[in-house]
Inverse folding.
């Protein structure tokens, strides 16, 4: 199945080909967890603070849904 | 030397240095501005009339050597925008300089009998009143420039632009930054109009030769400062090249968009297709590409987080500083505008004319909904600032902010609480921040109880943004801790590291205890914050506010917000819990 993956801020260096906010269309194993997917992309888990799937916060153990919009986010804040 | 209160009376043009009375002696920053307003301002007075006062207070530790990121100034008054008490907090040069002159607070009261305008110069030798007629109608860029030419030692310049002179309710108070640009603002709540109503165009502060800040227990202060600095430097968000330093507050643009909570086209969607183009990552890219401007800029000397930026245009000329997340939301996504150059140009207008960027952008968004122009019309939006600059009737309406403009256009969808428009987090997608908007003593204000930290950023714990469970208590705790931090002079952004690193929290309290000689620890932060909230809440009650005012606009209860299609469903009883303790 395929998913869309986005990374932001300091994590962008792990997907340098993607423009800002641009998704990487990725073929993953059916039911792969979001942890597996970031491992596959070489993004160290300790640099990820928030994992989102379709706009909801989930965790590394959550299985990806087909066609999901997935985001890996480092420490952010502001206001 | 004990701190003094500097009372400046514009009716008889007098200035007196008073001993700080016992009842105010323990307060600084917001705690002090709110205590003074509570004691001295009639809650029912007209905010622009003779009985309102503008109080300016540096925080407890502002002006002490090497306390990190501690140059924040509190501006307090009864707000003409909300009718509530208000503390509006700014960076820039003012806090440390006022603190080093040994002044705990400046109380600006009265109104000139002759209707004239003045500027006020304060240094170690006292106060001078000067005729400001030559500065009338001038924007803050020029006022700052003139003041640095007129006075030596690169003084702090606190001033208002034409919008403040006209006493419009979206007038902010500008403070110059280290490069003498006017981008640091006590923006929210229309306090520029309160200053204008005192007949004061600018207050210039030179600390040269001042006595400095008295530190009661230097050892304790140093110990606290060290722990706090360590926490800031260790946390991923606030360390060098961390999220805030590298991308500024606008690092949130893509994230809040991802979470479906980004106010878009007058709060009709939580996601904006152009978010990436107005994000912090894009600001950093522009700075790099155009080889001009700066990220990691400090809004005052001694900030070690340095979240500010200087935004360059295509020709490498600086357009404005800073472009914040709030600004990029209000003038960007909320207007359907996805062009950072335009956002920056509108920011420049706001900084020069003397307006809050949040309220200004949200005002254009309601005008767009009212049919004045199309969402996304960036040229049209930019042109509206000329109307405001000239003070045309339309410009005056826009200068009044969202609520007045929405009335002028007959709108129902008005995203305000107590007259102040909502900042950059949609409460239908992030419930805790909605509780803060509804109940804060300030009207809709994110900084007054930033539950985004645990709801989105995973800082200070992790809670589900969509759930209602525990949100009253969460919001109250954040509101109380914030009232304390706003009193320290430290930037509120120290909250991120110290929520996660307990030694940092302790260090903050110890540094305050060291300066003030107070017997407090980290455990006193929330209770002392609640003391401040109590004064503010009681002021508002006496001004006529009740719990029925602690509500979000009706349309948010019935209109589902894409992409999650949720409504505002926090029951009134939950909102009423937040401040129930005030009368217990
Ligand atoms: S972190 Fe940002 S807003 Fe806070 S004091 Fe530093 S530069 Fe100013």
């Amino acid at each position: 199945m395929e998913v869309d993956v986005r990374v932001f801020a300091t994590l962008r260096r792990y997907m340098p080909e993607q423009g800002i906010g641009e998704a990487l269309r990725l073929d993953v194993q059916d039911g792969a967890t979001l942890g597996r997917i970031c491992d596959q992309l070489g993004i160290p888990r300790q640099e990820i603070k928030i994992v989102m799937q379709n706009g909801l916060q989930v965790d590394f153990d959550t299985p990806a849904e087909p066609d999901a919009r997935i985001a890996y986010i480092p420490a952010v804040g502001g206001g | 030397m004990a701190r003094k209160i500097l009372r400046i009376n514009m009716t008889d043009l007098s200035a007196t240095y008073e001993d700080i009375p016992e009842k105010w002696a323990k307060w600084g920053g917001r705690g002090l501005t709110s205590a003074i307003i509570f004691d001295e301002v009639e809650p029912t007075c007209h905010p622009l009339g003779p009985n309102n006062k503008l109080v300016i207070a540096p925080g407890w530790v502002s002006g002490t050597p090497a306390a990190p990121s501690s140059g924040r100034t509190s501006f307090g008054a009864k707000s003409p925008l909300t009718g509530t008490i208000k503390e509006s907090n700014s960076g820039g040069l003012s806090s440390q300089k006022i603190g080093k002159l040994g002044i705990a607070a400046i109380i600006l009261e009265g109104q000139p009998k002759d209707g004239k305008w003045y500027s006020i110069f304060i240094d170690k030798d006292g106060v001078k009143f000067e005729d400001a007629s030559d500065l009338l109608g001038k924007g803050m860029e020029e006022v700052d420039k003139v003041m640095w030419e007129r006075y030596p030692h690169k003084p702090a310049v606190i001033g208002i632009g034409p919008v403040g002179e006209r006493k419009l309710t979206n007038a902010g108070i500008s403070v110059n930054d280290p490069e003498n640009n006017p981008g640091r603002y006590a923006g929210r709540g229309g306090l520029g109009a309160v200053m204008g109503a005192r007949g004061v165009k600018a207050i210039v502060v030179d600390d040269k030769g001042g006595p400095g800040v008295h530190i009661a227990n230097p050892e304790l202060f140093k110990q606290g400062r060290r722990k706090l600095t360590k926490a800031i430097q260790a946390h991923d968000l606030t360390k060098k090249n961390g999220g805030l330093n590298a991308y500024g507050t606008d690092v949130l643009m893509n994230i809040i968009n991802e979470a479906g909570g980004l106010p878009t086209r007058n709060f009709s969607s939580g996601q904006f297709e152009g978010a990436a183009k107005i994000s912090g990552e894009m600001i950093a890219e522009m700075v790099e590409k155009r080889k001009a401007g700066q990220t990691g800029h400090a809004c005052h000397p001694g900030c070690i987080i340095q979240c500010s930026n200087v935004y360059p245009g295509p020709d490498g000329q600086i357009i404005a500083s800073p472009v914040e997340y709030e600004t990029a939301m209000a003038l960007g996504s909320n207007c359907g505008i996805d062009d950072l150059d335009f956002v920056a140009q509108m920011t420049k207008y706001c900084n020069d004319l003397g307006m809050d960027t949040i309220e200004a952008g949200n005002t254009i968004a309601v005008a767009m909904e009212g049919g004045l122009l199309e969402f996304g019309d960036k040229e049209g939006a930019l042109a509206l600032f000329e109307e405001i600059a000239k003070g045309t009737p339309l410009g005056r309406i826009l200068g009044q902010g969202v609520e007045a403009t929405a009335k002028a256009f007959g709108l129902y969808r008005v995203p305000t609480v107590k007259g102040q428009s909502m900042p950059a987090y949609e409460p239908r997608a992030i419930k805790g921040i909605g509780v803060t908007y509804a109940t804060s003593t300030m009207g809709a204000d994110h900084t007054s109880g930033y539950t985004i930290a645990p709801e989105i950023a995973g800082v200070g714990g992790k809670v589900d943004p969509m759930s209602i469970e525990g949100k009253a208590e969460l919001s109250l705790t954040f509101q109380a801790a914030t009232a304390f931090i706003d009193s320290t002079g430290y930037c509120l952004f120290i909250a991120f590291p110290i929520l996660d690193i307990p030694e940092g929290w302790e260090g903050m309290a110890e540094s305050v205890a060291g300066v003030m000689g107070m017997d407090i620890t980290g455990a006193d932060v929330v209770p002392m914050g609640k003391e401040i909230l109590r004064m503010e809440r009681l002021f508002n009650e006496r001004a006529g506010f009740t719990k029925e005012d602690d509500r979000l606009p009706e349309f948010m209860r019935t209109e589902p917000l894409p992409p999650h299609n949720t409504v505002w469903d926090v029951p009134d009883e939950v909102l009423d819990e937040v401040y129930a303790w005030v009368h217990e």
Q: What stands out?
A: The mean pLDDT of chain B is 97. The domain at 215-237+427-584 of chain B is CATH 1.10.599.10 (Aldehyde Ferredoxin Oxidoreductase Protein, subunit A; domain 3). Chain B touches chain A through 52 residues (CB under 8 Å).
